[in-house]
Amino acid sequence: LDVCKHFLLAFATLGVPRQIKTDNGPAYTSQQVLIFFQDWEICHITGIPHSSTGQVVVGRAHST
To answer: Which helix (H) or strand (E) holds 34?
Structure first.
């Protein structure tokens, strides 16, 4: 899965995070990605569905 490959490249550069925050896009909520995060012991946090405020929280967390 392309998303997992991108995460692996990021891990190689930045290290493995304890948690990752994403939106609820299908690329981030698939079963394969869920298993990938479990295998790496990463807590996956998603935004609040259909809530622009919830997505802002995720976006701000990415910028810090």
So the answer is: helix 31-39
2 falls in which pLDDT band (50, 70, 90)?
Answer: very high
2-63 folds as Nucleotidyltransferase; domain 5 (3.30.420)
Distance, in Å, from the CA atom of 7 to the CA atom of 16, rounded to the nearest integer, reads 9
CA distance 23 to 29: 9
* Domain boundaries, given as residue ranges, for the chain: 2-63
Residue written as token pair 């295998």: 39
In the chain, the amino acid numbered 2 is: D
Specify the amino acid at residue 60.
R
**Token duo for residue 43:** 């807590």
